């Protein structure tokens, strides 16, 4: 059975972005199908460092990559594309293209072009999918039809012959989304420069961040472009997933996965209060993984706080809102003041040069939030808190009942001297060790009760 598949490099009309986004400047050669939700990244943008160690990653010649095509046939279901995308990402695949076809009688055909899998391990990939798909097939009745490498000569077929494709550096960018394909449902938040809506795109729930106003100024344009560039750069299970963007005025918006669990700020301050130690560590580990990936890609978030941590339907925490994030240059220092005072590192408040360690300070404040369920410096105004941080070394009080290892990590993260703060790789390791320690202590208590 042959299945429709869009090759890497379509034919058609060219388009141009007025915002001059890199890789949006020449959105050449669109296919006749609706734009897929995911697209091709240049080799320089692929986040290889964020992949798990046990995934068989191949060493590729420059501008070349091996692609596999995965075709899944099923009865059409809500959130199907989102579920399949998450599954493939968790396996470790980079999704270069995704095409969803549906019929009037509710039949769906989903075609994915992926890379980041070793050339000789096609059967291993097939086995991996057959093992993982049953986790969601109860509700969607999925049937993986074919997994095949994409060759220059054969874009369809089911041949298992591997071949490297030479991919030109100026590949089309399929992140561009037609605004007419977005369905708005309700507004869920608003900010100084835009509004956030819940909606749908290609039958999947999405969050749509829309720039407010008919004539956004140059600064807003610049920040919008920067956010798109940064979100395209990173794919990680603990970073909110970028789906696409509308970059042609007047419809300027960014589309991401919809996080049904809401923000950690709302969870802590409006619903539940503080977290128990196991839940706290789970969230902290999720955030550390996401931030570690960002820093590996030289991205400084600059506004890390509980309001910018979102949870999915399974309670997985993800880093969100890259409106003020920046790519750190080779000098490794920045000088502009940005962020939110209660979470802001002292060097940023003082307009001193700073680097990625400013995010570590903010993470320390987030840990304190998770531990207490309170607003940092709740009895002070934001400005009073900022002055206290830089002039008096003010920090939120650590509760006496805190686990000693967690208290120690908090104090290290918000050290006045940025060089004394740990990297996220070390933070992640410490949190995972603490998680194991807490689990062991819990088991010991259970054994003592039984005896």
Automatic annotation (TrEMBL):
Pfam families assigned to the protein according to its UniProt record, in alphabetical order: PK_Tyr_Ser-Thr (PF07714)
Chain ranges of the ACT domain: 69-145
UniProt xrefs under PANTHER family: PROTEIN KINASE DOMAIN-CONTAINING PROTEIN, SERINE/THREONINE-PROTEIN KINASE TNNI3K-RELATED
Lineage per the UniProt record: Eukaryota, Viridiplantae, Streptophyta, Embryophyta, Tracheophyta
Originating species: Salix suchowensis
Skewed-composition ranges (Basic and acidic residues): 45-57
Protein name as it appears in the record: Uncharacterized protein
Region Disordered, annotated ranges: 26-62
PROSITE patterns from the UniProt entry: ACT, PROTEIN_KINASE_DOM, PROTEIN_KINASE_ST
Domain Protein kinase intervals: 182-434
InterPro entries per record: ACT-like_dom_sf, ACT_dom, Kinase-like_dom_sf, Prot_kinase_dom, Ser-Thr/Tyr_kinase_cat_dom, Ser/Thr_kinase_AS, Ser/Thr_Kinases-Pseudokinases
């Amino acid at each position: 059975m042959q299945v429709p598949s869009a090759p890497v490099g379509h034919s058609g009309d060219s388009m141009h972005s007025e915002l001059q986004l890199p890789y949006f400047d020449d959105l050449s050669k669109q296919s006749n199908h609706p734009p897929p939700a995911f697209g091709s990244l240049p080799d320089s943008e692929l986040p290889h460092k964020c992949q798990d160690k046990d995934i068989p990653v191949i060493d590729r010649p420059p501008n070349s990559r091996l692609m596999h095509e995965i075709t899944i046939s099923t009865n059409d279901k809500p959130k199907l594309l989102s579920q399949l995308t998450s599954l493939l990402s968790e396996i470790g695949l980079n999704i270069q293209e995704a095409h969803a076809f549906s019929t009037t009688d509710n039949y769906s055909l989903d075609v994915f072009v992926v890379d980041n899998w070793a050339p000789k391990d096609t059967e291993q990939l097939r086995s991996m999918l057959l093992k993982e798909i049953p986790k969601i097939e109860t509700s969607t009745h999925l049937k993986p039809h074919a997994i095949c490498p994409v060759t220059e000569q054969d874009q369809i077929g089911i041949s298992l012959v591997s071949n490297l494709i030479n991919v030109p550096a100026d590949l089309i960018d399929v992140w561009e989304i037609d605004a007419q394909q977005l369905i708005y449902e309700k507004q869920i938040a608003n900010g100084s420069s835009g509004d956030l809506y819940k909606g749908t795109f290609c039958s999947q729930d999405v969050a749509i961040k829309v720039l407010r106003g008919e004539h956004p100024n140059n600064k807003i344009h610049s920040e919008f472009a920067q956010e798109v560039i940064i979100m395209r750069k990173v794919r990680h299970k603990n970073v909110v997933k970028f789906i696409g963007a509308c970059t042609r005025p007047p419809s300027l918006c960014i589309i991401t996965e919809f996080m049904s669990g809401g923000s950690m700020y709302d969870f802590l301050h409006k619903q539940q209060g503080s977290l128990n130690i196991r839940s706290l560590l789970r969230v902290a580990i999720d955030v550390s993984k996401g931030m570690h990936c960002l820093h590996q890609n030289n991205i400084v978030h600059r506004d890390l706080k509980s309001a910018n941590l979102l949870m999915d339907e399974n309670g997985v925490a993800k880093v969100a809102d890259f409106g003020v994030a920046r790519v750190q240059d080779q000098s490794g220092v920045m000088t502009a003041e940005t962020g939110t005072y209660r979470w802001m590192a002292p060097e940023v408040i003082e307009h001193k040069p700073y680097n990625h360690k400013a995010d570590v300070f903010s993470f320390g404040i987030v840990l304190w939030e998770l531990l207490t369920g309170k607003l940092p410096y709740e009895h002070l105004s934001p400005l009073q808190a900022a002055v206290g941080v830089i002039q008096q070394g003010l920090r939120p009080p650590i509760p006496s009942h805190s686990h000693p290892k967690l208290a120690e990590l908090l104090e290290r993260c918000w050290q006045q001297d940025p060089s004394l703060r740990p990297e996220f790789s070390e933070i992640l390791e410490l949190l995972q060790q603490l998680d194991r320690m807490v689990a062991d202590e819990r088991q010991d208590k259970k054994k003592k009760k039984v005896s």
